[in-house]
Amino acid sequence: MRASTARQAADPISSAPPYDYSMARLVDEAGIPVVLVGDSLGNVVLGYDSTLPVTLDDMLHHTRAVVRGAKDALIVTDMPFMTYNTSVEDALRNAGRLLQEGGAQAVKLEGGAFVADTVRCLTGNGIPVMGHLGLTPQSVHQLGGYRVQARTAGQARRLLDDALALEDAGAFSIVLEMVPGNVAQAVTERLTVPTIGIGAGPGCDGQIQVLHDILGLGARQPRHAKRYADLNAITLDALRAYRDEVSARSFPTADHTTESDAAVVAELPGADG
Ligand code: KIV
Q: pTM of the entire structure?
């Protein structure tokens, strides 16, 4: 069987990053096999306008919560901005913390050939690494915004070289974010490790989407994300109904309340009968 045919026959990997215990439990129960604790939590959970302010402590905190919720999935956690860029030693120490203190099973970091030595060091020390190419959100200011990457022949060639460098350094999988579909497919076919696309078309080995985008729970709706539910609307309806029932004193009712024996209340001081 040719590699591309074998790829098509394989079950595509799905992934959606939960950021807390409750969502991790649901993602796991849905049978999603790869759980990424993404630093996109900076945008969708912490309210920043980029992932740059996310710290290692933020990632440790959220990774621990996700680990408590996801029992079966492979748990990969993002290395935040400037936790692997300053030196290979820093990267090893910080990735080690994400596994040892956070409970993750692998880390993801952004960048191509220039992080290959870091990836080699981590994988050499038993830390599985997922790469991330194309639109790398931690470089948003250098890229000039959140836009499709690798559109020209030269950029597509660089993307392939970066992917091959990551593979050679030992990355077990590579995220391709916002890359033209035909470029993502061509890169995928030239790699032995699986690619996971986000806004990179159906030719990748798997797909990842920000959980809040597919559940309709966020403020934004990127073109590449499909809304499988409108949790904004469902949640608002539920919260308004709750507010109204509390105002109208129709919640809570006897069904939601435990009563004590009347004698217990009668014995309380201060009751005037
Ligand atoms: O931070 C994140 O959630 C990600 C994925 C969307 C790839 O990096």
A: 0.94
Residue 77 CA to ligand 1 center (angstroms) comes to 10
Phi-psi region at 27: left, alpha or beta (left = phi > 0; alpha = psi -120 to 50): alpha
Residue keyed to tokens 């020390």: 125
Cα(75) to ligand 1 centroid in Å equals 13
Confidence of residue 157 (pLDDT cuts 50, 70, 90): very high
Ligand 1 first shell, C-beta below 6 A: 17, 36, 38-40, 78, 175, 177, 198, 208, 210
Contact 18, 45 (CB under 8 A): no
Q: How far apart are CA 54 and CA 19, in angstroms?
A: 13
Per-residue DSSP letters for 214-272?
HTT-SS---TT---S--HHHHHHHHHHHHHHHHHTT-SS-GGG-----HHHHHTSTT--
Q: How far apart are the first and last CA of the chain?
A: 87
267 in catalytic set: no
